[in-house]
């Protein structure tokens, strides 16, 4: 297979010991929502100013192996240096979100399918030229009483595999992201059942479409109680259910599982990851690719003001350090207390 050695090496580097991925690929409407929460106007300049805090935080490379960027950011420069070059010079792999978002799935009310396959081969070639080393595509599966349908699970799995094959053809490691949403009153058992079906269907399609499993990373949800479920599973229950679900569905050839945070609090996302790693060894690296759980305190500390850059960077580095510790099961709540004093 063309690019095989490079794909294997990049996929491994993304889950290097003690490190994980920063998801900073919020689309323009999503970053506007985040900025609205701190009362800051979202402009091309303010988006770059905020992300510059993250990309230039000193020492972040100790815990961060790669950053997922949005199209706009991949083309921006900081003090004259293109963002992908700036990250690479610090030993951080630049990645790019390539899907065009989850859209209503015709024939399946309440369900979504992710679009963006048309023209993807050409876009991937351009992203590789601009310095990207890996890509991301997110599929969304919603749980309610009578969904997800098989049609939704299969349509999303098929699109994820087509994206992954195209990405590998361009020499870019695909992050394959099937996200079973945590919204709703469902139990953790129901989340486990739906996650198992979804991941199983995904690996069936990846196999059918000739995707090199050693050259991808999986970005799944954790197996959690629904947000509105009256009974919330404990950290240990979440860790056990998530590991069991992965063991049943994810081949050992896959180098890494890099979880999304999906709306969990930052501290809980770290505690869950740490508990799973404490149960190891596992056939795959268990790591993070968090958006909100790495950024929320930094966004709040920044509040749109240049003079808060140091505080924002300190908040980001703290979360990065905690998640770096969770990579080996070594996170404890005393790390939070130590940072608070
Ligand atoms: P969250 O960690 O905020 O869920 O974001 C991760 C991500 O990249 C979702 O696609």
Question: Which short descriptors sum up this protein?
Answer:
single chain, 341 residues, alpha/beta, TIM Barrel, eight-stranded parallel barrel, two-stranded antiparallel sheet, 13 helices, 12 strands, globular, binds 1,3-dihydroxyacetonephosphate
What is the secondary structure topology, with strand pairs?
Layout lengths: L3 H11 L5 E5 L3 H9 L7 H12 L8 E6 L1 H4 L2 E2 L2 E2 H7 L3 E5 L4 E3 L7 E3 L5 H10 L4 E8 L8 H20 L3 E8 L7 H21 L8 E2 L16 H15 L6 E4 L6 H13 L6 E6 L1 H11 L6 H18 L7 H7 L1
Parallel strand pairs: 1-2, 1-12, 2-5, 5-8, 8-9, 9-10, 10-11, 11-12
Antiparallel strand pairs: 3-4, 6-7
Helix pairs in contact: 7-8, 8-9, 9-10, 10-11, 10-12, 11-12
Explain this structure.
This protein is of the alpha/beta class and 341 residues long. It has a single domain (4-340), classed as Aldolase class I (TIM Barrel), CATH 3.20.20.70. The chain has helices at 4-14, 28-36, 44-55, 71-74, 83-89, 120-129, 150-169, 188-208, 235-249, 266-278, 292-302, 309-326, 334-340, and strands spanning 20-24, 64-69, 77-78, 81-82, 93-97, 102-104, 112-114, 134-141, 173-180, 217-218, 256-259, 285-290. Strands 1-2-5-8-9-10-11-12 form an eight-stranded parallel barrel, surrounded by seven helices. Helix 9 links the parallel strand 10 (217-218) and strand 11 (256-259). The termini are far apart. The structure holds 1,3-dihydroxyacetonephosphate. 1,3-dihydroxyacetonephosphate binds at residues 23, 138, 177, 260-262, 290-293.
